[in-house]
Design goal:
By secondary structure, this protein is α+β, with helices and mostly antiparallel strands. It has 8 helices and 8 strands.
Length: about 220
């Protein structure tokens, strides 16, 4: 044990050197420790802003400036623009070749994502992800459904009273003509007239049409 003088009340006390090493027992009691801490926080030192020359006060523990002392965040930004602060460390950029056009691209570390470092632009990314490269590619289809398709489509909507056979919404409420869905895929037939038979057609709104497509063919949900 060593003899010390309390910095708060000037009273002499014995302290353990091991505890002093870790900042403990610096005062004679816990009460003096709290009082000394309060006095330290109440003290304000005067400083001069090195950017606008304004005189301001800060508590000792609030001033931790290593390069420049400023009065506000605005003066801190001005100090950085004036070069009073050292430049921020920069991370090296990422270099890669576009998988579509082969263009060499250098992306800075501040640009996050960057199309996963695969493409030089959004246009290249969209072009790459279209067609067979897209996860939801379904093999494509021919928009021509045969000579009698328009007539059969019209008859199917008339047969269903121009209402969706799933949710019941009418064309007037839907604001557009209903879709006509092939219950069995059109491409599964060799003859278009058989695929367009009224028994194989059902009128659906656009939302229900999409749901029916995925529900009738769950294999389409599986990603490649």
């Amino acid at each position: 044990m060593i003899e010390r003088t309390c910095p708060n009340c000037n009273k002499t006390y014995l302290a353990d050197p091991g505890r002093l090493k870790f900042g403990r027992q610096t005062t004679c009691s816990r009460k003096c420790s709290y009082e000394l801490r309060g006095k330290t926080q109440q003290n304000h030192d005067s400083h001069i802003c090195q950017v606008c020359s304004k005189v301001f006060e800060r508590k000792p523990f609030q001033v931790k400036a290593k390069y420049v002392v400023v009065c506000s965040h605005a003066c801190y930004a001005k100090a950085r623009k004036k070069g009073l602060l050292p430049p921020l460390p920069t991370k090296p950029g990422t270099e890669f070749d576009c998988e579509l056009c082969g263009k060499h691209v250098v992306v800075s570390a501040t640009e996050k994502g960057a199309r996963r470092f695969r493409f030089c632009s959004i246009d290249c990314a969209n072009q790459w992800n279209s067609g067979q490269n897209n996860w939801f590619w379904r093999g494509g289809y021919d928009r021509y459904y045969g000579k009698n398709w328009k007539r059969q489509r019209r008859l199917a909507r008339k047969r269903d009273d121009y209402a969706c056979q799933s949710c019941g919404v009418t064309e007037l409420e839907h604001g557009r003509q209903l879709d006509v869905h092939h219950i069995i895929r059109f491409k599964d037939f060799e003859i278009s007239e058989q695929a367009n038979h009224l028994s194989n057609l059902v009128s659906l709104c656009h939302v229900c049409h999409i749901k029916r497509e995925w529900n009738d063919h769950p294999e389409l949900n599986a990603r490649k």
